[in-house]
UniProtKB/TrEMBL annotation:
This is SURF1-like protein. It is a multi-pass membrane protein. The chain crosses the membrane at residues 6-24, 197-216. It comes from the Bacteria. CDD domains: SURF1. Belongs to the SURF1 family. The keyword Metal-binding does not apply. InterPro entries: Surf1/Shy1, Surf1/Surf4. Keywords: Cell membrane, Membrane, Transmembrane, Transmembrane helix. PROSITE patterns: SURF1. It is found in: Cell membrane; Membrane. It comes from Roseovarius pacificus.
């Protein structure tokens, strides 16, 4: 009987560790879902006036309503949408009189013409955003060819002569066809904790089966030695 104690303890310890990791991931899942729910509620809140000095942390996703004239120049940021394909986010300046900011007008498929800006004053409801589009594999923006791979606000503001402040349109008072708004949401925020939990629980089950099989083989071997 003593020969079974060490592998049994080893098996139980392994199962406990793997189950513990799975439970921890489930706790992280609940925490992340709470954060996402809070962000979604903030995104969908009633719009307010544009703050005089927006804070990238405190005002992230803040819904705002802004009025001004859309500039003639449009920057193209290469993106891809599921079930739609490749296209561009179109970024223009919004001249509000005393302030000029960046306006993310929406998405247009590659090959479609970017429409001319609307004439006169327009109203846009959207969200403040400080996007983090760039990673280690993101190419440098090709400003000369007007092909952008990341919404680098400082660089865009320099080209369009605006504040490095971006409003991503959700609703507009004008038709910008074929552009369609591509509003801020939580889809870019990773939430893989359920997949991780399933992985750890699955490994715990495999460990339990392997432990049981190993003990069974030991018992069969002992029986063979006793005959």
């Amino acid at each position: 009987m003593a020969r079974y104690i060490v592998p049994l303890i080893f098996g139980i310890a392994g199962i406990a560790v793997l189950v513990g990791l799975g439970v921890w991931q489930m706790q992280r899942l609940a925490w992340k879902e709470g954060i996402l729910a809070d962000i979604e509620a903030r995104i969908a809140a009633d719009p307010v006036e544009l703050p005089a000095a927006p804070d990238p942390e405190g005002d992230r996703y803040l819904p705002v309503q802004v009025t001004g004239q859309v500039g003639d120049q449009a920057l193209r940021v290469l993106v891809s949408q599921k079930q739609v394909g490749a296209g561009y986010r179109v970024i223009s300046a919004l001249d509000m009189g005393e302030r000029r900011i960046l306006l993310d007008r929406g998405f247009v498929k590659v090959g479609r013409d970017i429409p001319a800006p609307p004439q006169g004053e327009v109203t846009v409801t959207g969200n403040l955003h400080w996007p983090d589009d760039r990673n280690s594999s993101t190419p440098d923006n090709d400003v000369a060819d007007n092909t952008w791979f990341a919404r680098d606000l400082d660089q865009m503001a320099g080209v369009l002569d605006t504040e490095p402040l971006l409003v991503v349109a959700r609703e507009t008072s004008f038709s910008d066809d074929p552009l369609t708004p591509l509003p801020v949401d939580t889809s870019h925020i990773a939430n893989d904790h359920l997949e991780y939990a399933i992985t750890w629980f699955s490994l715990a089950a495999v460990w339990a089966v392997m432990t049981g099989y190993f003990l069974w083989r030991m018992r069969q071997s002992a029986k063979g030695e006793g005959t």
